[in-house]
């Protein structure tokens, strides 16, 4: 590290903007692989606050445990996650026991976690510093001047005054601030997916495994041997869904995400926390489990127009990671998978530079892979999803297909090949074309059938008093093929019995564009009441 105190200029190999998970992980991995690298990590917060992204899935859990080495830390300080559950309602449902349910019958076989990000981010940052990264905290990056193939210049405000950092590489891990993408006009809002979200942490939320529920709701524990409370529970509505994530220590993260074209968020002057309670109170499951709960003051948030992607992901001297690169949708918790792939991708580019490799083809592949991954993930999983995620019949098929294909084509290669399995982000490889086309096909058809159901008044007809408790998922290929085949057979049956009504019918587009579609908000609103 070259530091000229008189001129307050620091020279280094890598400057990392942001010390939360994606930035700290990149710094940690770089120092592990190349201890001679001079790394300065600049973090604006003196202490991390809680943030969304509290549920890992299989790939992100692998990254945390086997790549970063956090297994013991996570098992000692966080909760082990037990899969996903969905809860549905219609006019016939009066309470939690009436709600139709989708979820595993047993505990999950592949590890994942429910995490307090403030705790986990601190631990990864501590390990990065222990590995030799220099941490500036609290410090704020005021500007970045990029020079392709040369040194990047960062102007930094610290408690000791203004500093200048000259770094060969900048890793932008600034989160939704997306510093480089916004400053260079690379950021593109995804106007085809107009979602908003409100969330908070709550105290005193209900216990999904309480003994009194067995007596209150007939059949509550019939044929069920798992733990509902440490699953990521999803409250599903028409055009919206809500997450329910238990945190170590007793608090619960609860938030709603809705498609602004399918559902309405209250526009009155009520505090956001009360709006959240009032909105979720429409659903019997949420109403019962939130009875007596109180949101944590100062930890209530709102954000509109969630998804975006940077047109450029990397250049000769910079690379974007995590939410600074793109954000899509919280459903299925893909955010930390994206952190894993982008952080490892950043490390791969910087290591290639250190080895003297020709960066041009590597940068072209990196940019192509991540923009393709984002587009395909959106079209395969999320475009039109909010049209049908509130319908039990359709969602139970989509869930089996979505997760079965994720296990087969995304998670299984990572668990089989280790870090090599992160070489290409999901859906980016040429070989992924057929399964991407399959997923996009059934996703579009499910959305079309749901719209037809809504027109004829049968949407959500099975949302009351049905339970789909399946054995779960594992990496045995014959078993996964059986799960996927069952989902495809169910899709075929739906097409034959009702789907034909929507064949050839084009989706009606919204003619009038809401003013808020101009772009994603830079920061969420933190509400103190």
How is this fold's topology laid out?
Layout: E1 2-4, E2 9-17, H1 21-33, E3 39-42, H2 58-67, H3 71-77, E4 79-80, E5 84-88, E6 100-104, E7 113-114, H4 117-130, E8 134-136, E9 139-145, E10 152-158, E11 161-172, H5 179-183, E12 187-189, E13 195-203, H6 211-216, E14 232-237, E15 240-246, E16 252-259, H7 272-280, H8 284-289, E17 294-304, E18 308-310, E19 314-315, E20 318-320, E21 326-327, H9 335-354, H10 359-382, H11 385-388, H12 392-417, H13 433-456, E22 467-470, H14 477-497, E23 525-527
Parallel strand pairs: 2-3, 2-11, 3-8, 5-14, 6-22, 11-20
Antiparallel strand pairs: 1-2, 4-7, 5-6, 9-10, 10-11, 12-18, 13-16, 13-17, 14-15, 15-16, 17-23, 18-21, 19-20
Helix pairs in contact: 1-4, 1-9, 2-9, 9-10, 10-13, 12-13, 12-14
Task: Tell me what the structure shows.
α12 packs antiparallel against α14. 36% of the residues lie in helices and 23% in strands. Strands 1, 2, 3, 8, 9, 10, 11, 19 and 20 form a nine-stranded mixed beta sheet that branches. The chain has a nine-stranded mixed beta sheet with strand order 22-6-5-14-15-16-13-17-23, covered by helices on one side. The protein has 529 residues and is of the alpha+beta class. β19 and β20 form a beta hairpin. The C terminus is likely disordered. The protein is built from 14 helices and 23 strands.
């Amino acid at each position: 590290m070259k530091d000229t105190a008189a001129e307050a200029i620091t020279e280094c190999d890598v400057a990392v903007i942001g010390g939360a998970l994606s930035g700290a992980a990149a710094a940690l991995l770089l120092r592990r692989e190349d201890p001679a690298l001079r790394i300065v990590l600049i973090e604006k917060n003196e202490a991390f606050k809680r943030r969304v992204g509290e549920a890992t899935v299989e790939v992100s859990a692998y990254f945390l445990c086997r790549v970063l080495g956090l297994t013991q830390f996570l098992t000692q300080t966080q909760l082990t996650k037990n899969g996903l559950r969905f809860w549905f309602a219609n006019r016939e449902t009066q309470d939690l026991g009436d709600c139709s349910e989708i979820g595993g019958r047993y505990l999950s076989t592949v590890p994942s976690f429910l995490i307090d990000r403030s705790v986990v981010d601190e631990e990864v940052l501590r390990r990065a510093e222990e590995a030799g990264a220099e941490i500036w905290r609290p410090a704020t990056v005021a500007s970045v001047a990029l020079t392709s193939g040369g040194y990047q210049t960062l102007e930094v405000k610290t408690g000791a005054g203004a500093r200048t950092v000259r770094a060969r590489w900048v890793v932008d891990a600034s989160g939704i601030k997306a510093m480089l993408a916004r400053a260079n006009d690379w950021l593109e809002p995804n106007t085809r997916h107009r979602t908003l979200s409100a969330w908070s942490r709550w105290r005193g939320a209900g216990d999904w495994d309480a003994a009194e529920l067995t007596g209150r709701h007939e059949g509550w524990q019939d044929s069920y041997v798992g733990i509902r409370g440490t699953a990521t529970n999803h409250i599903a509505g028409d055009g919206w869904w809500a997450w329910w994530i238990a945190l170590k220590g007793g608090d619960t993260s609860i938030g709603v995400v809705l498609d602004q074209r399918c559902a309405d968020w209250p526009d009155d002057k009520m505090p956001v926390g009360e709006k959240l309670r009032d909105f979720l109170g429409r659903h019997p499951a949420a109403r019962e489990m939130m009875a007596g709960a109180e949101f944590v003051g100062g930890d209530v948030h709102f954000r509109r127009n969630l998804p975006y992607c940077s047109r450029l992901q990397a250049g000769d001297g910079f690379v974007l990671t995590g939410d600074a690169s793109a954000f899509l949708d919280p459903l299925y918790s893909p955010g930390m998978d994206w952190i894993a792939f982008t952080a490892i991708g950043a490390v791969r580019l910087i290591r290639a530079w250190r080895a003297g490799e020709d960066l041009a083809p590597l940068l072209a592949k990196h940019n192509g892979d991540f923009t393709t991954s984002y587009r395909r993930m959106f079209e395969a999983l999320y475009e039109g999803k909010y049209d049908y995620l509130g319908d039990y019949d359709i969602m139970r098929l989509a869930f089996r297909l979505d997760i079965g294909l994720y296990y087969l084509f995304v998670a299984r290669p990572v668990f089989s090949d280790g870090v090599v399995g992160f070489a290409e982000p999901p859906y980016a490889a040429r070989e992924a074309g057929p399964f991407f086309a399959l997923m996009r096909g059934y996703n579009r058809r499910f959305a079309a059938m749901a719209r037809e159901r809504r027109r004829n008044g049968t949407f959500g007809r099975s949302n009351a008093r049905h339970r789909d408790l399946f054995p779960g998922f594992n990496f045995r290929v014959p078993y996964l093929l059986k799960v996927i085949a069952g989902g495809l057979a169910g899709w075929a049956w739906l097409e034959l019995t009702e789907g034909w009504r929507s064949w050839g019918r084009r989706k009606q587009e919204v003619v009038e564009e809401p003013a808020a579609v101009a772009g994603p908000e830079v920061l969420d609103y933190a509400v103190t009441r």
